[in-house]
Amino acid sequence: MKMMKSLILGSAVAFAATAGAQAADLPVKAKPVSYVKICPQYGPGFYYVPGTDICLKVGGLVFAEVGYYAAGAITTLATPTNQNAHDLAWRSRGYVSLDARTATPYGTLRSYILGGFQQVSGAGTQALANGAPGYAVNASAFIQYAFIQFAGFTAGTANSFFDFSSNYLTLSVASNPWAWTNVFAYTANLGNGLSATISLEDKSVTRVGNGAVIATQNVSSDTPDLVANIRIDQAWGSAQVMAAAHQTRWTNGDEWGWAVGAGVELKLPMLGAGDTLKIVGVWSEGAIEYTGLSGSPYGGIGGIQLGYNGAGAGFLDAAATPGTLTDASSIMVQYRHFWTPTVQSAVHAGYNSVSSHASLGTYAQVTQFGHSLKWAPVKDLTLSLDVLYTEVQANSVATDKVATWFRVTRTF
Predict the structure, then answer these.
(1) Taking the alpha carbons of 130, 330, 158, 267 in that order, is the dihedral positive or negative?
(2) CA dihedral in degrees (265, 269, 275, 277; nearest 10)?
(3) Which of 18, 47, 170, 187 would you call most buried, defined as having the most Cβ atoms within 10 angstroms of its Cβ?
(4) DSSP structural state of residue 295
């Protein structure tokens, strides 16, 4: 019996020693380590960059779209005719966004970048400032936003502080002023949702002139636009009054033009959750693009392109020969209704008026009516269909078009 116990004990010791040796040869499993920490103070999607106190959010957007008569209406003032030989237009675009924020004793330090690539074919997207309608078939890279915000200051490429709210339609409309431009601005928070901003802005996208057409006009930039606004944001919605000073130069002199505007956006929960009504009006002299006349800062899908036919026949910020500024105004009403949480529609009515000096006899009126239907079948995916009617009356001759536009958008 003693011999049997000794044998069993010895075998157990040998087995334990062997198992221990084998266990020592196995790789040690590391404890899980959280390399990315969430930044809850800035909302969902923000994470600390490892080893720093910077909170970063990475996002993006991809859309593909196609439409007929996407340039809205293209006309030459002296002989208004349809010059759009490319009725069908295609565009695909991909965005990448980076939003970096850091807490400081003076408030949040933020830098934001939004840019990407696009492929365009068919109807062109030249700006009104280019002076004539055109067509593009190209692939290009672009930066839409690149700005820094700190202690109330904004510096970089951003929306003009003259702009108010966003366009409810996918197609650009001629009576909704908006521009991406270079700015150096300061915004003062006055409390209770009230703020005031003063901004120096690059006038490249608001200057309407063409030295090749009117040789006596100088379209160089030697002074920035001066833009200011007062804005209030409350539970009922938002409102803003805005103004801009814009220099126009020609060979024998220069003069300052101006634009003033007001906008209000009302929340209408009694009609539907998320429903809003927006009204914007702008009056200008010598700063006609602040009325939103071209539809977007670069002509844009759905934009208006008023061509030129000889010296003095087109609309510029000023008529160089008599040395007078061009008058322009616009009014827009948009309403957005949510039929269900995933289905919404928006209606648009807009009107622009622009006239040069009486001796030139050039004037135009732009009237637009539109509707947009959007459906989000799943989260972050939207399908939209827009219809936009545009009538341009130039020198007592009218042309009109109906643009249709379909877009599929995925955000992430």
Answers:
(1) negative
(2) -30
(3) 170
(4) S
Parallel/antiparallel/unpaired status of strands 73-76 and 304-307:
parallel
Q: How is 210-248 classified by DSSP, letter by letter?
A: -TTTSTTEE----S-EEEEEEEEEETTEEEEEEEEEEEE
Distance separating alpha carbons of residues 132 and 151, to the nearest angstrom: 42
Please give the mean pLDDT across all residues of the chain: 79
Instruction: State how far the Cα of 298 lies from the Cα of 115, in Å rounded to an integer.
Output: 16
| Residue positions counted in the chain | 412
At position 147, the amino acid (one-letter code) is F
* CA separation for the pair 120, 124 (Å, rounded): 8
Nearest to 166 by CA among 339, 385, 346: 346
Which residues are within 8 A (CB) of 270 and not within 5 positions of it... i.e. 6 or more apart?
Answer: none
Q: Which residue has the tokens 């009922």?
A: 236
- How many CB atoms are located within 10 Å of the residue 3 CB? 6
pLDDT in tens, 176-232: 888 889 999 999 999 999 999 999 999 877 776 543 333 334 445 578 999 999 999
Q: Is 356 helix (H, G, I), strand (E, B) or coil?
A: coil
Which string of DSSP letters, residue by residue, matches 308-337? --STT-S--SEETTTTEEPEEEEEEEEEEE
Reduce the DSSP state of residue 405 to 3 states and report it.
strand
CA distance 351 to 369: 9
Q: Which residue has the higher pLDDT, 365 or 305?
A: 365
Q: Which amino acid is at 126?
A: Q
Residues 257 and 284: beta-carbon distance below 8 Å: yes
Q: What is the pLDDT of residues 296-335, one digit of tens each?
A: 654 444 445 543 333 333 567 776 555 678 889 999 999 9
Question: Helix or strand or coil: residue 364?
Answer: strand
Please tell me what DSSP assigns to residue 28.
P
- What is the spatial distance between Cα 157 and Cα 171, in angstroms, rounded to a whole number? 22
By the 8 A CB rule, do 310 and 279 touch?
A: no
Q: How large is the average pLDDT for residues 5-28?
A: 45
In DSSP terms, 181 is beta-bridged to: 158
